[in-house]
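Re-running the complex after MR caught last week's input typo. The corrected sequence lines follow. Everything else is unchanged.
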Amino acid sequence: MSFSITEENYIKAIFHLQQGEGTVSTNELAAELHTKAASVTDMLKKLKTKKLLSYEKYKGVRLSGEGKKLALAIVRKHRLWEYFLVDTLQFGWDEVHEVAEELEHISSKKLVEKLDAFLGYPKFDPHGDPIPDSHGKMAVQQHINLIDLPVNKPAEVSGVGSQSTELLELLKHKHIGIGTRLEIKRKFSFDNSIEIKLKNQNAFTISQQLAQALFVKLM
Amino acid sequence: MSFSITEENYIKAIFHLQQGEGTVSTNELAAELHTKAASVTDMLKKLKTKKLLSYEKYKGVRLSGEGKKLALAIVRKHRLWEYFLVDTLQFGWDEVHEVAEELEHISSKKLVEKLDAFLGYPKFDPHGDPIPDSHGKMAVQQHINLIDLPVNKPAEVSGVGSQSTELLELLKHKHIGIGTRLEIKRKFSFDNSIEIKLKNQNAFTISQQLAQALFVKLM
DNA sequence: AATTATTTTTAGGTAAATCTAAAAATAATT
DNA sequence: AATTATTTTTAGATTTACCTAAAAATAATT
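Corrected-run output:
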């Protein structure tokens, strides 16, 4: 069975909002997809007949096994293409998301497998997110939220919590990217801001919001 | 201005049927696109308002300057992706068309330019068709470098890149001259040597330097 | 518990791209 | 030139994905 780009985008959005388990509401989906609740209801009925999800009126929605499988296949393509764009074509890691949103809908299975092999079966994309393998399995991220990093523990930035251009702009300005080495020097409980020190640089403070948007791995 | 995949496919089909000059009929287009004449008429009206073509009722269509520009951009993407699939991902040259039909609609201009650079600005795709450059110019085919000849395409030696006695000595020894019929059986990326087969003879390999000094025309 | 607020669904409509069937224009043939 | 055949266009429907506005269900608050 094959699915339209729109259908695939719904499945992907539900997968992201579901995160592990739980149920997703119509309004949440409408917001995520920049559409209206009425449109979402229509599409959920349709996707239900295609057995990609379970849906009861007013009860929210969750992906079926089939739905999860499809979602993982799309995520796999998205992240492999991001890896390709950065690693092979020398894109900046902050400019690949939009392009990958288009490339993830290319249907050829053989293409995905050959691309994966060419890239050397990478396990994480340029934002630090794990790439599902051809069976849908992905590596567990030993990433912790920067806000939870203990003071004076050296760590390396390994992922970002969102792809918003606003966040990427701020990170660029602060010279923070995937792979940046840093440690926390102080935590201020007044506003939950933290003072961090990048390797070979002076310390500066960042907001709680920014810290929560960054993931690091201990070294 | 941006165009739907369907619109792009119409423009591409008209471009192919037009071939150089001339006008394209509604029925020809319907056949090419596996659709019905009535649908074609509708779309032609629409594309006319977008100034991609000139169209008068019952008189057929031809692309405008803008239309040709768009067609060349799509052809460029199609052929670059085909080259990528064969050259980088090791697809067979006979299995890339369908995939390229999807990839040619990816919109990012930056992606196309970076892909072109990564591939080394190839001039011909794996089928021997010329790849338009970023300005829409493409090489004229009847005199291509042997190094750019696709595998298994019969060709005839039509020129040499130098008149040095060293080259001519080598050519004499290999029994290669103007008018010699040959085709490439394999390309070896290790040293860019190629295995060629002369008509009615066994195959043998020649160096990159020699291949670059020979021009052939497709037959 | 009753009322108010929010969320979700239904009902009815629009735009894009397609279709079939019938009408109009052009081309071919006697 | 008149008739027949072919091509092309119009007219009216269908499907997908979306919308607005109103109704129905659920949740929150007094």
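None of the earlier attempt is carried over here. The longest strand of chain A covers residues 181-187. The mean pLDDT of chain A is 93.
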